[in-house]
């Protein structure tokens, strides 16, 4: 029996969003509303029992009216990295509509307690959203799963060279978490339906499917490990982004254990999904 009876999902067409929507839609007694941009048609995958509304993110009053009309108690928004700041007006609408919990789009490098010198542009927006939620008094749940398992080949340029490429400046021995998108979405849907607000409100949680180091990926892929100046197979903005991720892994910003600040989720939260079998990395990669 879920504590919350009405949940809205924005960013419902991301891999995580789809799992969240489908899991919630299969939860007895749950009312599910999918929010898309007004320009996006009703997603074809939505089951009939899921409501859909197109919104203009910047129109706070109109979104608040829609959320109130559906008596929404939780907003989950696994939106695209480029859309992160759209969550500020969405959060304002949620607050105005009496929503009790907002689950913003984090899902990567730990943002709580990260040293100022490491706040790269792709983290800035996420931190701004977290600060905004706090400033308007809307409780949040921030979920950090390490690297999506599907992204691990890209992280080390495996697709391009059939080798595990690690930046020369790094040792490659710091453990990091990898989690499948099915497990990430499943976790979010599970916790918001099984745990009360007191367990979830203003929590930072780290979850993990498999734990590995960059060097250990050699054994995972059964491929040579090579130290390189640049990760092959990635271009443009992504070059810097992937290099940054490897550096963050080395600093422990993508695992469940490295403590950065009080309440940063270190220690892990897999236990919130009781009896779940977490998908191992090799299984997702079909290795
Ligand atoms: N840890 C990792 O390895 C990893 C890897 C990838 C992503 N991530 C993170 O996971 C989260 C989801 O990313 P993703 O790549 O999975 O997302 P994605 O598939 O690109 O997201 C698609 C969703 O984002 C929405 N969207 C796109 N542009 C938008 C805009 N301008 N305004 C509002 N909504 C917009 C779409 O909305 P409509 O439904 O309206 O079309 C769609 O539902 C992000 O926080 C990202 O940084 C982490």
UniProtKB/TrEMBL annotation:
GO molecular function: oxidoreductase activity
Domain NmrA-like: 5-227
InterPro entries according to UniProt: NAD(P)-bd_dom_sf, NmrA-like, NmrA/Isoflavone_reductase-like
Pfam families: NmrA
Keyword field: NADP, Oxidoreductase
Keyword Signal among UniProt keywords: no
Descriptive protein name: NmrA-like domain-containing protein
